[in-house]
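[job 4417] fold queue: 2 targets
>>> target A
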Amino acid sequence: MASASVITAYLGAGTAAARPSAPTLSPGAIGVYWATDTLQWSIWDGSAWNAPGVNKTNASVTAAGSNQATALATTVDTVFVTGGAVNTGLKLKTPVVGTPQDFINTLTVAVIVYPNGATDQIENLGTTVGALLPAGGNIRFWPSSATQWWAR
């Protein structure tokens, strides 16, 4: 090897608001920041911070609504259900093939997890039909297409 170069020039942690707007980095170097309040990584690409799809967690979600149209929409990879009444609902995120979404129900009542779009479905339940997430249970959903989810 003729020479070595710096791969990471900035490594930081703190609240999302405390993250520097534009770290000063050497050309080709990477900046990495862990937001302790949102539990998300950010990577500086030389012009902007980007949040990779790793460990995106929402630690406190309240299920709401009574059908697919009124259920609470989710956008993170891991969802902890900490509020809601029996049979209230949550929607899966927009499917990205190969990127699962986990739901952990910390409640003593069951809630319903619905597909995101009007033409989406879970297993072979039918479009917009939800899957039961039992009290104290957890389910991992895997998208196999832009409209199809499978539960495990």
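>>> target B
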Amino acid sequence: MPEAPIEALKPMNRVQKLMADMTLAEKLGQLTMASSHHAVTGSIIAGDSTSAIRAGAIGNLLNLFGPAPVHEMQRLAVEESRLGIPLLIGFDVIHGHRTVFPVPLGEAATFDPRVWELTAREAARVAEKELILKVLSRTHWNRKRAAQQLQISYKALLYKLRQMGLDGSDTL
């Protein structure tokens, strides 16, 4: 009797089957993070990571942003790798983005969860503002196109612009 497709299995059974099907190299690949060239926050890995994504040797990408690059890398991982596991994609704002706060260990030493929340919220706010400014600049301040590229509604973009005080002349 043929095996049921993996999509038909219950979540835990899917995970167990996937883990059983993975080679050691693919398991290590899921633990491997590479930094993209979009923002440099650490050591630079030379070369193109697309072949490593196809081979399952990279499971995480750091500092990749924008819908088109993210979708392309996810497409490679899901459609062109043997196991089709989506990538984890992150942007390094762990202790600030343009506004730098103490490293998490230093913040933890304050023993004040409110400080942790406020610094994380501010780092996210600054990163979001920079991303919106970059997309607006790339679209020559065409808010309708910018909203599409950001994959948010036009109304949500207008709200964010007003909330952030962006009027087209703002710079970081």
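[job 4417] complete. Note on B: The CA atoms of residues 43 and 65 lie 18 Å apart.
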